[in-house]
TrEMBL record:
Family matches, as InterPro entries: TBL (IPR029962), TBL_C (IPR026057), TBL_N (IPR025846)
Domain Trichome birefringence-like N-terminal: start-end pairs: 73-125
Family that this chain belongs to: Belongs to the PC-esterase family. TBL subfamily.
UniProt topology in membrane: Single-pass membrane protein
A single GO cellular-component term on record: Golgi apparatus
Subcellular location: Membrane
Keywords: Membrane, Signal-anchor, Transmembrane, Transmembrane helix
Full protein name: Trichome birefringence-like N-terminal domain-containing protein
GO molecular function: O-acetyltransferase activity
Residue stretches making up the Trichome birefringence-like C-terminal domain: 126-413
Length: 425
């Protein structure tokens, strides 16, 4: 979007007026999750968007950005990656909240071309993520990201983008009381100037890990019929982004043998996709029963592909030579069956849930993984790096800064589209 900036007098009334305009406009449109208003062949139908944005690092001066660029109605997940030298949103190595395994800059990754890409929908413009505007929309609220380590990737990206816009970094604090990050705990970052927090709740299955006591032994199970015990940590949040997918594999679930439990019954054998559907339905019932739709916006983030070549994660597969995205669509993976299951469940829900279908757009980004730079390479020789490449690489998670920044760009665009956070108490 091409923006022109002007001073805003009486910013509260301007913000309320902007909200009224956006509500009136979107009330006349059919609501399509993940899409933006289409253009018309008639130039008279050109729409002017007004964005309330807060430029720079100051929290004391409000500014309005007006855009005369039309925002088109389209599928924002259908597009291509284009070069953008204004990226990344924050310098590599600058954010203290990045897990060392995702911190490719500090771990010595020598190239940075993978940082300079922007997702561009076909026939569509989405706003760049204005961190200060996002924080203003979050004022007095909680945004919680719930799920596995890929959602932790997304959470770390978001808190780093937002933190970079704050001049006084001491006004950003970890309030979860953790001295160091772990994969599946609870973490909360508070932005004091906005009285808001962005939290992560580790819950790789969303449903509950348990144990079953038989006559002869006790063994670990997964309760497909119960949500995990962490739900009180996010039930009353203002925005929740869920995911679950990557743990639904054989080596995480005892190959489905005597692992999946419903009530007092443990399935001797259950196919992975069937178990996944049962868990999703449990999650959907919980959301429909417990989420206040007048307060909370719910998102479900889609599956993202891994990019191992010449083997798998434990058989010498790697991605350490990848420095550019995939450009030939024929080389993309098939659409994951797990996401078809998600789509089916979402269609039956009473609660509006926005499906962030990022599977395909992320599949292009084979260049974005930590690979051997999951650990520090500072004092290793080329031979040592080659030896490590043969042993174990991370082609599942993502470097930060990196591709998850674009996932958050889409999250911001979806909230921006509906005027979320403007004038809300």
């Amino acid at each position: 979007m091409h923006d022109s900036t002007g001073e805003a007098n009486g910013c509260l009334s301007a913000r309320e007026e902007n909200l009224r305009k956006m509500q009136t406009r979107y009330a006349t449109e059919e609501r399509v999750e993940g899409s933006f208003p289409t253009n018309s062949s008639n130039g008279d139908d050109k729409i002017t968007e007004v964005e309330i944005a807060y430029q720079g690092n100051s929290t004391e001066k409000d500014e309005i950005i007006e855009s005369d660029s039309p925002v088109w109605k389209c599928d924002i997940y259908d597009g291509k990656w284009v070069r953008d030298d204004s990226k990344p949103y924050y310098p590599g190595g600058s954010c203290p909240y990045i897990d060392r395994g995702f911190n490719c800059h500090l771990n010595g990754r020598p190239d940075d071309g993978f940082l300079r890409w922007k997702w561009q929908p076909n026939g569509c413009d989405i706003p760049s993520l204005n961190a200060t505007d996002f924080l203003e929309r979050l004022r007095g609220k909680r945004l919680v990201i719930v799920g596995d380590s890929l959602n932790r990737n997304m959470w770390e990206s978001l808190v780093c983008i937002l933190r970079h816009s704050i001049r006084r970094k001491r006004r950003v604090e970890d309030i979860s009381g953790k001295r160091q990050f772990n994969k599946y705990g609870f973490h909360a970052i508070r932005f004091k100037d906005y009285n808001c927090s962005v939290d992560f709740v580790g819950s790789p299955f969303l449903v509950r890990k348990s144990s079953f006591n038989s006559k002869n032994r006790s063994f670990e199970t997964l309760r497909l019929d119960l949500m995990d015990q962490n739900t009180p940590k996010y039930q009353d949040a203002d925005v929740i982004v869920f995911n679950t997918a990557h743990w639904w594999v054989h080596f995480k679930t005892a190959r489905g043998r005597n692992f999946f439990q419903e009530g007092n019954y443990v399935h001797p054998q259950l196919k992975m996709l069937e178990a996944y559907k049962k868990a999703l339905n449990t999650w959907a019932r919980w959301v429909d029963k417990n989420i206040n739709v007048h307060k909370t916006r719910v998102f479900f983030r889609g599956y993202v592909h891994t990019h191992y070549s010449n083997g798998k994660w434990n058989t010498g597969g790697g991605c350490h030579r990848e420095t550019e995205p995939i450009f030939n669509e024929d080389h993309l993976s098939k659409y994951p069956s797990k996401m078809r299951a998600v789509e089916s469940v979402l269609q039956e829900m009473k609660t509006p849930v926005t499906y962030m279908n990022i599977s395909r757009l992320s599949d292009y980004r084979k260049d974005g993984h930590p690979s051997i730079f999951r650990r520090s390479m500072e004092y290793t020789t080329k031979k040592e790096q080659n030896d490590l490449a043969k042993k174990s690489q991370d082609c599942v998670h993502w470097c930060l800064p990196g591709a998850p920044d674009s996932w958050n760009e889409l999250l911001y665009a979806l909230l921006f589209k509906e005027g979320w956070g403007l004038g809300q108490k």
